[in-house]
Amino acid sequence: MSDLMKIVEAEYSEARAKFPSFKAGDTINVHVRIKEGNKERIQQFQGTVIQRKNPNSNGETFTVRKVSNGVGVERIFPIISPSIEQIDLVRQGKVRRARLFYLRGRQGKAARIKEKIVHKH
Amino acid sequence: MTSIFSADGRNVACTLIEAGPCVVTQVKNVETDGYNAVQLAFGERKEKNTPKPLIGHFKKAGTTPKQKVVEFRDFRVEFEGQVELGKSVKAGEVFVEGDFVDAIGTSKGKGFQGVVKRHGFGGVGGQTHGQHNRQRHPGSIGACSWPSRVFKGMRMAGRTGGDRVKVINLRILKVYPEQNLLLVSGSVPGPKNSFVILEK
């Protein structure tokens, strides 16, 4: 990315900084603003992050996957989107890939992710 | 290119353009040249790489050698009287947020391409029903004993891209006066770091 481009994208660094850092394999809870007519409410979407795309740019997105009533649901969020109210890091996962598409073919016990033990010194 | 979120929450693809400072290197008028025009120059250039006649041209305007020189013919009435030789034109003085501009540039060269990419032909449209290996071919290029020739201008394969292309009505989303930068919606012709002409 050129230096000039950073001038534009620097304005969004604040929006990015207010979220906790998360990676593929982590379980997060995304609070999404939803507009219904004139009313606005907040919906939560909790699931596993299966990828982060185009990191450190304005086009960065992340994909969250959850299994809802036995049906796999995936949502893609732009990280600088104004409709994201808050992101909670629920659980950190220990995975060996950056993109966890193998989770799509698995269900139940096979789709588990080991928890990452974070040592505090 | 990058993207920003507009005030109404829509993700807008946009392009960053360095628009200035440009220097007025010549002002043409009806009496001496037969038409009204202003010549702007942009981008620094080493003196050793500049042809001697051009160095003299830039010296007349009192500036250093520039990379690109473009003439704008019949410019707007509102700028009349404001242009003078050697004056520096900044992006913030000409462009305002919300304006619509046209961008002219040279599109990316694509090399020798077939008719499907070059002219948007549909191709054959199927691989079955006895179709051999001509899925992306142009098909017939004319009739038979009359006219017994191919008409001029028949669209065929060939060199694609690298043409002068004008994209109209790009909205200026943001102006950065200190850095002379413009953020316009959508894309402009050509590769990164290439020159474009902006018209208001």
From TrEMBL, chain A:
Single Gene Ontology MF annotation: structural constituent of ribosome
Pfam families listed in its UniProt record: Ribosomal_L19
SUPFAM superfamilies xrefs: Translation proteins SH3-like domain
Gene Ontology CC terms: cytosolic large ribosomal subunit
InterPro entries: Ribosomal_bL19, Ribosomal_bL19_CS, Ribosomal_bL19_sf, Translation_prot_SH3-like_sf
Top-level taxon of origin: Bacteria
GO BP terms in the entry: translation
Family membership: Belongs to the bacterial ribosomal protein bL19 family.
Protein's job: This protein is located at the 30S-50S ribosomal subunit interface and may play a role in the structure and function of the aminoacyl-tRNA binding site.
HAMAP family reported for this sequence: Ribosomal_bL19 (MF_00402)
Name of this chain's protein: Large ribosomal subunit protein bL19
